[in-house]
Amino acid sequence: MNLQSILNPIVDALQWSFKHFLEPMSHWFNWVLIVGGLFGLILWLRMQKRFSQKAREEGTMI
Q1: How far apart are the C-alpha atoms of 55 and 47, rounded to whole Å?
Q2: Contacts by 46-50 with C-beta closer than 8 Å and gap 24+?
Q3: pLDDT at residue 26, rounded to an integer
Q4: How far apart are CA 44 and CA 35, in angstroms?
Q5: Using CA atoms in the order 29, 34, 36, 41, what is the torsion angle rounded to 10 degrees?
Q6: What pLDDT was estimated at residue 23?
Q7: CA-based end-to-end distance of the chain
Q8: 8 Å CB contact between 18 and 10
Q9: Residue 15 burial by CB count (10 A; 0-12/13-18/19+): exposed, middle or buried?
Q10: Above 90 in pLDDT, residue 53?
């Protein structure tokens, strides 16, 4: 038994998982991340606008 006989099944399993899971998943996963990032950006900007408005009203804006 040598290192090659240990690593070959691991490499085959990784290549199989890339071919059957990761490549088909990559397209929709990218879109989920893009939409999630845009949602987070819009949410953050709306919250920042409210915080800034509150600070202006209270006179605590730096």
Answers
A1: 12
A2: none
A3: 78
A4: 14
A5: 160
A6: 80
A7: 69
A8: no
A9: exposed
A10: yes
Q: Distance between alpha carbon 34 and the CA centroid of its chain, in Å?
A: 8
- 42's enclosing H/E stretch is helix 23-58
How high is the pLDDT of residue 36?
A: 97
At 29 the pLDDT is: 85
Cα dihedral 38→39→42→45 (10° resolution): -100
- 1-49 confidence digits (pLDDT tens): 789 999 999 999 999 988 888 788 778 888 999 999 999 999 999 999 9
